[in-house]
Model the fold of this input.
Amino acid sequence: MKPIIRKRKKEDSQELAHCIATVWNTTYKGIVDDDLLTNLLNGETENAERLKNNINSQSNYYVLTLDNKIIGWVYFTLENKEYENAAEIHSLYILKEYQKNGYGKLLYDYATQKILNHGIKKIIIGCLNGNPANDFYKHLGGKYIGNRLFRDKYLENIYLFEL
Ligand SMILES: CC(C)(COP(=O)(O)OP(=O)(O)OC[C@H]1O[C@@H](n2cnc3c(N)ncnc32)[C@H](O)[C@@H]1OP(=O)(O)O)[C@@H](O)C(=O)NCCC(=O)NCCS
Done:
């Protein structure tokens, strides 16, 4: 079945909250505190509600589906708090069982094209230290430009993409 990328809808919220909890647990075990991961699993209903409520403020949020099932998502904003004239990709995730099939690159290219359509030629992406995805971003041409703390605690590397 062909992958489809589309804007997320309110009706996706419960499924998306489940996907987020799942992928965080497969990605960040040993990188963030176990409590944070358990809370995500236990708090899926609340997270689904939050996703439903902020659908209008998160307009650049896209899901990737296969056979009507969400298998990945990307969320970006056209600006960010720290770097001038740069968009930021805040989330780029593929469920574990679908990784390494080109879907991450597909979502990255999709977001990049949307950002370029707004005349923005720089993108930053933060990636937690210790996450293998750091190498994915380097592979795609991201240049390490510094770091910051995620949730005041976890070191996050920042990559700059010049399009
Ligand atoms: C990181 C992630 C988005 C990559 O998506 P993916 O679908 O697995 O990657 P793709 O199959 O699209 O790979 C595209 C290219 O990157 C390479 N690549 C993928 N993962 C890589 C990694 N961890 N390190 C180095 N290169 C990697 C692939 O080999 C491929 O190279 P090629 O185009 O030269 O053949 C995905 O693995 C993921 O969701 N990981 C868990 C969540 C996560 O960490 N997200 C990032 C949060 S900051």
About this structure: The longest helix spans residues 13-27. The domain at 4-162 is CATH 3.40.630.30 (Aminopeptidase). Residues 146 and 158 are 5 Å apart (CA to CA).
